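Quick one: structure tokens for this chain, please?
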Amino acid sequence: MTDEGAKKTPLYVREENFNYDKYAELADDVYRYEVLDGVLELMSPGPNASHQSVSIEAAYLLKQSCNTEYLVLTAPLDVILSPENVVQPDLVLIHRSRLDIVTRRGIEGAPDLAVEVLSPSSRHRDRVKKSRIYAKHGVPEYWIVDIGTRTLERYILREAGVYEIVDLFAEDELVVSDRLPCVSFKAGTLFVDVFPAI
């Protein structure tokens, strides 16, 4: 097998009984992984152009309005919620009063907001597995951005430790959050450079 062919095959596919220490020792094979409930999972191939465009637009809009109060960070970046849960949300917000969770290893603890932009191969993972993990570790607000429907779903963590969808924003509706008062942009703005064929 040529070197080029070797790069296209991930070294790891699904490994159980995994934790952050094992994750940190992985050989670099250009793929991205997450540890979900102690299972190493290969993330989908690199995000396509539409996914990247939406992620960048979301970061830009949040940076414009929230940068004074929040640190805005994008993937790839390890968010270490526990030794058995290491995730890479597309975007996170961390209040500047909590910057002690930003370390050399990544983010060690729950961000104030986690955002996932859905890809066809990540729908189940983002909606079910990661949603449950974010809730379990106390991420107070979670957004799912769906390129297919051009919507932003806003979930908040309830006292029972589960997310409840409280808003579904589309088109010209203003995205706002009572927990993140700096947020204010039209939902449709996220999708200005989405490519219909992708």
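The first strand starts at residue 14 and ends at 15.
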